[in-house]
Amino acid sequence: MAHLTEAQARQFKEQGFVAPFRFLAADKLAGYRRGIEETAAKYPAEIGRFNYGRHPWNPWIPDIHEDFLDAVEGLLGPNLLFSSMGYRIKDPGAGAYAGWHQDEFTLRYEPAALTCLFAFTELTKENGCLEVIPGSHKNGLLPHATKTSPDNYLSQGQHISVPVDEAKAVAVELEPGHAMIFDQRLIHGSGVNRSKKKRIACFADFCPPHARRGDGKRVKAVLLRGVDAHGNFDLE
Predict the structure, then answer these.
(1) Is the preceding omega at residue 209 within 30 degrees of 0, hence cis?
(2) Cα dihedral 79, 60, 21, 118 in deg (nearest 10)
């Protein structure tokens, strides 16, 4: 039976995130990372966009560790859909960052969904790992403003338009091949890459089949576990 430890379940409930979980075996990681870098070099304007279903850029999905899916199942239930994904690549010395925001501002799933972050390289404070405000998911969806910027890699340049207590921020550092799971209302962001190495991460949404997108759009998805008795997504 899928489960989280008591400590992990408590952390997710109280802080809105839990990590780390290994999602990919070390012997597979290098090959998939090379593929991501080759794709990014060939399609620099496309690699950062969010895509749905079994996109050619995410061939690693079938190799996701069962233990990781156990953790997601422990939060969402036995029927799991992988609905969307997008890569976030920061070159060394580049100014790319993500302002403080909540994922639910741009895409809401009703009644439930989770965001997962997958590390294809080391994610550290120095290279711009994800930073979160623990417990902020309990405060509901906050007001956001949008302003496009060449350095803000968020789709709409979205950022929370009320004060955020940055003193409470926690950097979630991850080893390559590890992942974190977080609530879509958790306040999070990331800084620039001040290291000398490329930083590669992927964000993905998971939801149960009975969920629907808040914008009413119908998109592709991959059934990772269980059954889909609702037909809200076009399964691949």
Answers:
(1) no
(2) -110
Render pLDDT for 12-35 as a digit per residue (tens, 0 to 9). Answer: 999 999 999 999 999 999 999 999
In sequence order, the 6+-apart residues with CB closer than 8 A to the CB of 205 are 82, 83, 84, 85, 103, 107, 109, 113, 114, 115, 116, 184
> How much is the pTM?
0.94
Reported confidence tier of residue 118, pLDDT bands at 50, 70, 90: very high
Residue pair 116/181 in contact by the 8 Å Cβ criterion? yes
Burial classification of residue 90, based on how many CB atoms lie within 10 Å of its CB (0-12 exposed, 13-18 middle, 19 or more buried): buried
| Beta-carbon count within 10 A of 32 CB | 19
Alpha helices (runs of H) in the chain, residue ranges in sequence order = 6-15, 26-42, 66-76
Domain ranges of the chain: 6-235
CB 210 within 8 A of CB 226: no
């997008």: which residue's tokens?
86
Place of tokens 């279903």: 53
CATH of 6-235, one of 3.90.320.10, 3.40.50.2300, 2.60.120.620, 2.60.40.420: 2.60.120.620
- pLDDT 10s digits, 49-76: 888 776 777 889 889 999 999 999 999 9
> How far is 53 from 42, CA to CA, in rounded Å?
21
Question: What whole-number distance in Å separates Cα of residue 186 and Cα of residue 49?
Answer: 21
Whether 51 contacts 161, CB under 8 Å: no
Which of 189, 163, 170 is CA-nearest to residue 11? 170
